[in-house]
Amino acid sequence: MKHHCAAIFGYNEYSKQILKQLKGSYRNIGVFVISDAEFLEAQEDGYSVEKFDLSDNWEEIEVRFDVDSLIVFCALTDDAENVFLTISLRATFEKLFIIALAQDNESMMKMKSAGADKVMPILQIAANVIADILGKPIMTQVLHDVLYEDSDLTIMEMEIGANSPINGQYLHDIHFKRDFDLILLAIVDQEQGTTFSFASKGQNHHIDEGDILVLMGYKDKLQRLKKWNAGVDACK
Fold first, then answer.
1. CA 20: distance to chain centroid?
2. Which end of the chain has the smaller Cβ count within 10 Å, N or C?
């Protein structure tokens, strides 16, 4: 279903980017924070903000939002706290749509086990990609649904290993759309300190071990590419 209100837990650089993208898409947005510093900062930035602790019984959520149309972002900076928060929310609201942020793959698995409907890596890929295409309303809406709603499409980070067939090739020599039915959004160059390079900007990037490709597509197509990248399936 389409969500009409959103609750964001945590006020940090990533949640700020999410909030920027939610403006205009949701009629009721609330920020929930643990620390006084985050409370003051969110308040100064003009957001409706509430204090909470991890032992809350979430009555405020039920009073303030229509839970059936609510989407929640567990965006605390501490992964362990995000896991606990996800467990607590899921135990109280069986059908609540929860998106959790995670630092790494291990934490992502924990978030899923805790009851998150969708898990996003903490690396600020989504926000940067969205910022790059804000001038294209149709693509903005599509990407919004991919990231924040229940969509068959998804976004995947894929690190290039030493034995990857992609290692050592140039970007223009790989046809992700033709061969894999996927869209390459961006590259993170490990030699430049996780610098983003958007695929739309046309650079013929030399792909090296440790680089990260950011791709969008259907889950089965992404898994096929992931296996090929790992050398499991040598056939396209």
1. 14
2. N
**Alpha-carbon distance 34 to 54, whole Å?**
8
Angstrom distance (rounded) from CA 222 to CA 220? 5
Q: Kindly report, residue by residue over 24-47, the tens digit of the pLDDT.
A: 778 899 999 999 999 999 999 999
Question: What is 153-229's CATH number, 3.50.50.60, 3.30.420.10, 3.30.70.1450, 3.40.140.10?
Answer: 3.30.70.1450
Q: What homologous superfamily is domain 5-125 in, according to CATH? A: NAD(P)-binding Rossmann-like Domain (3.40.50.720)
Question: What's the rounded Cα separation, in Å, for the pair 16 and 110?
Answer: 24
Q: Is the pTM of this model over 0.70?
A: no
Distance CA 9, CA 174 (A): 39
Check residue 122 and report its DSSP letter: S
